[in-house]
Amino acid sequence: MRARVLAVALLLSLLLALIPAITAHAASTRRLCARSAVLRDSPEGFVIGRLYRPQRLRYVRRSANRRWALVRTRSGLTGWIAYRRLCK
């Protein structure tokens, strides 16, 4: 019984460790088409960085109002930029 509980716990921890890799793979890669873009911590939030063309970004998702895109840089910084700044 204890071995079965341990095996289930091990399997569950392995699956939880793989979730970020699975979701990162589902995202697409986009280029920044605008000359520059401000990276924010939330849509219309605080500025956390500035991005410059032709930087490649991992596109994760869009905001509910469809004006913002959640992106991840190659260095791992995640934030929101105006969707119109991305290449189609």
Report what the structure shows:
- By secondary structure, the protein is of the alpha+beta class.
- The chain has a single domain, classed as SH3 type barrels, CATH 2.30.30.
- Helix content is 28%, strand content 36%.
- The chain is built from 1 helix and 6 strands; from the N terminus they run H-E-E-E-E-E-E.
- The strands form 2 sheets. Strands 1-4-5-6 form a 4-stranded antiparallel β-sheet. It has a two-stranded antiparallel ribbon with strand order 2-3.
- The longest helix is centred in the N-terminal third of the chain and has 25 residues.
- It is elongated, with a radius of gyration of 18 Å.
- The N and C termini lie far apart (55 Å).
- The model has no long low-confidence stretch (mean pLDDT 83).
How would you summarize this macromolecular structure in one to three sentences?
The chain is of the alpha+beta class and 88 residues long. It has one helix spanning 2-26, and strands spanning 28-31, 36-40, 47-52, 56-62, 68-72, 78-82.
